[in-house]
């Protein structure tokens, strides 16, 4: 897995810069001035990125066997679950934010994260923090700072 | 210096409402800046939304106070937890943390606050005299010079990440690539919008900033969340002895101007300033063997340099619109958001805003030293908040901040995407500042590049046509050679604490 990521990232960057180069060259022509003006900068940039990605790939090939503690942590213990849950609940939050309103969605989102990260045993503190922090931010932003929240 | 504008700025800055904002901003900035695992850039990023909806002058004053507060806060966690918030606070761990371990945390916090205060004041005086001449000088810059100046800033910031230059330049190209998304302002051509109307205005860099810094750092901290323990910290007496002051005063006074000058240079900033001042003081000291083991001047000197550099870094930011570090890049983003375009014309067109900001630095520094000494108890209590409760709250703040930028939940997905990118960048040891900086200056850089070329009918000779541009090219080349110079110096001097700093900055 570690090797996969170590080499996967530079390969992804190579593909990405390749695609970026192709789509730069296919940019529509400008109607005024030099018709190619909009594409020079991104095209030059993507070539630079491509070169750098290859250098990065060769560098990684040399060090592929080296241990990266943080990369290992990424896949060990409950970390993958934590990351997926945090991101997943972020997505759900984004989907329900407008529907059920700021206050309710934030209490649920923050509460969910707290229960998951901080544990069920500390339910009292989780509930207090989720409700009071959500209310406090709602008050600060919508009442004091005049931000209109759903 | 225009005395009238200066006085007008002062009168704005001392309005009670603005003083209240300075105190609130300084306090909040200190708190978020000192939270373990979160640096000043994150602090500024998540607190920016507070300023929306305020009148622009108060908003800028509040933002500057958050910035300085965050810089102060960054070194609080260096001293108390041995975890610096960003590169510029690393030097504070060398002697600050050993002092705290010896039960002198209170004294360390006090001397560092006073040193930062004096360094900051020295720098503000320098600022008052240097800002306007520099702005006048920058007025003569054409598109070619601006392009080269931005190139220098980017290459300088990448070169500082010794040992990961390829990754630094990759991060930079990704940032520049992101900046090309949206309608091309010169020709109206839609670029890389993937057919989405939302992308036609480009990717909002504040969302990227909040994503990679705030969400990215929280996700990164989740990797080791179960290993993070809260150690109880004994603060002790919060003031320093006469002897400690005697040892520190000259290092503080020497490091202030040094830090200021380094801070003004593009790309250099607080990390280099605090490191150079630390090394210098160790060489000058008669008790150099105590350095690294809780020598008070080893804490005071870099703190003074670091804070004066953070004021110095505001000069290129305000007079040329060029940020020198991740945190100042975030500041630039925020200023643009408030409709204020930093650059040479700022002092011409909005002198009272510029001078109000400069004067607020004076007041901000005074407020911060008081906050940091009187409220040590409260600040230490904040550090006792378990990270498992803290990080979810930061996530919520990041989401709210994003919402206030565009009032659409569409951007939440971008926020999460850039959070994941930030996480992987940290895990794979990519420097983040070049990405953020490149994204912010990218579109200006391209426009200046194209304007320069069209004014010369496509000839690249325009980039070598003035003394300033040749000087900028020379400096860019020098910055690219900088890692080689450091490598050479490192082989001469080995196994010293600042080597660690090179690696981690």
From TrEMBL, chain A:
Keywords, sorted A to Z: Membrane, Transmembrane, Transmembrane helix
Transmembrane portions of the chain: 7-27, 39-58, 79-96, 102-118, 123-141
Pfam name, any one: TctB
Entry keyword annotation includes Transmembrane helix: yes
Residue ranges of domain DUF1468 in the record: 9-150
Protein name, as recorded: Putative tricarboxylic transport membrane protein
The species this protein was found in: Sediminibacillus halophilus
TrEMBL record, chain B:
Coiled coil location: none
Membrane-crossing residue ranges in chain numbering: 12-35, 41-68, 108-131, 143-162, 169-190, 202-223, 256-278, 313-340, 361-383, 389-405, 412-440, 460-486
UniProtKB keywords: Membrane, Transmembrane, Transmembrane helix
Name of protein: Putative tricarboxylic transport membrane protein
PANTHER family hit by this protein: TRICARBOXYLIC TRANSPORT PROTEIN (PTHR35342)
Limits of the DUF112 domain: 19-437
A Pfam family this chain is assigned to: TctA
Keyword Membrane: yes
Lineage, top ranks: Bacteria, Bacillati, Bacillota, Bacilli, Bacillales
Superkingdom: Bacteria
